[in-house]
Amino acid sequence: MDGTPTFRKSAGVFANCEKAPDYAELVPLRIPAGWQIGWNQLHRDKRVEDGDFGGSSVFYATNEGRRFVIDVEFRPEHDPAGHFELTVHYQPWPRDARGRRQSNLPFAFGAEAQLMHSFETRSCTELIEQLETWIARCSIWMVEGN
After folding, report:
1. How many domains are there within the chain?
2. Is 102 contained in some domain?
3. DSSP annotation string for 70-138
4. What is the pTM (predicted TM-score) of this model?
5. SS in 3 state form for 60-80?
6. Does any domain span residue 130?
7. Which domain holds residue 104?
8. Does residue 125 fall inside a structural domain?
9. Using CA atoms, how far apart are residues 80 and 93, in angstroms rounded to an integer?
10. What is the pLDDT of residues 104-144, one digit of tens each?
11. pLDDT digits 0-9 by tens, 64-115
12. Would you say residue 52 lies in a domain?
């Protein structure tokens, strides 16, 4: 062996997937267990001042166990004068007639969601700092008891 990584033939097109532009250019994020990433368009090479951010939502994550949703939007889309908007919402547990938590129902993000935090910035660095802070905070935050 010459030190070159080898891949099984069954890996096929997946052998060098970490070099694909859609993966290699993502901003590295620290995300603990329990989070589901719906989408992530936070790329290292995109610039606010160039109007590179479009699609109203550029990052979306949910933590069903803790009942949080974190969304990052860029407003207005593709506008060099635009800014990031980070929001953190909490979805209260559904309750039965006696006020007991109904943990057997599937997680559904709805009109009862409470805004817990919002943040606006034009800086990608500030956005990533806030995003990681709130992901960590929401990973341990218990908003309501039983």
Report:
1. 1
2. yes
3. EEEEEESTT-TT-EEEEEEEE-PPPB-TTS-B-TTSPP---TT-EEEEEEEES-HHHHHHHHHHHHHHH
4. 0.79
5. EEEECCCCEEEEEEEECCCCC
6. yes
7. 30-140
8. yes
9. 40
10. 888 888 888 999 999 999 888 999 999 999 999 999 998 88
11. 989 999 999 988 887 788 888 999 999 998 889 998 888 888 888 888 899 9
12. yes
User: Please, which residues bridge with residue 101 across strands?
Assistant: 95
Q: Who wins on pLDDT, 24 or 130?
A: 130
CB 64 within 8 A of CB 107: yes
DSSP 14-77: GTTGGGSHHHHTBPP----TT-EEEEE--BTT--GGGT---SSEEEEEEETTTTEEEEEEEEST
Confidence (pLDDT) at 3: 59
